[in-house]
């Protein structure tokens, strides 16, 4: 059985790219367009891994992560930040905030499946 990955990203083109890359590598994907929708989808579908954009309307990625980590049902799900803020020290800051890791945008389509495999297995 393939790992189920929830993609929480407000940019539809980015979402479609991630879905296409992960589907090619055999992952099942779910999609959400903002943090609030992502939290609801996580509770409903219990994915193996969440890829979470940081800057989104309605609820940003940090607020969504906080809700997920405070809910016993979703606390154990690993969440990887997706961000265009790729500055020195960001990986450490995102990890301190509770993210498992982060992926810088623009996405590297060869790197994405390797990072997903590291955290979701399969």
What does this structure look like?
This protein has 122 residues and is an alpha/beta fold. It has one domain (4-120): Response regulator (Rossmann fold). The chain has helices at residues 12-24, 35-45, 61-70, 90-97, 111-120, and strands at 4-8, 28-32, 49-53, 78-83, 101-104. Helix 2 packs parallel to helix 3. The longest helix is centred in the first third of the chain and has 13 residues, at 12-24. The model has no long low-confidence stretch (mean pLDDT 92).
- Sheet with the most strands, sense and barrel status: 5 strands, parallel
Strand order in the sheet with the most strands: 2-1-3-4-5
* Reported CATH architecture: 3-Layer(aba) Sandwich
Determine Rg (CA atoms, Å).
Answer: 13 Å
Task: Please state the overall shape, judged from the principal axes of the Cα atoms.
Answer: globular
What is the CATH class designation?
Answer: Alpha Beta
Q: Which range does the strand content fall in? A: 15-25%
Summarize the structure.
The chain has 122 residues and is α/β, with parallel strands linked by helices. Helix content is 43%, strand content 20%.
List the helices and strands and how they pair.
Blueprint: E1 4-8, H1 12-24, E2 28-32, H2 35-45, E3 49-53, H3 61-70, E4 78-83, H4 90-97, E5 101-104, H5 111-120
Parallel strand pairs: 1-2, 1-3, 3-4, 4-5
Keywords summarizing the entry:
alpha/beta; Rossmann fold; 5 helices
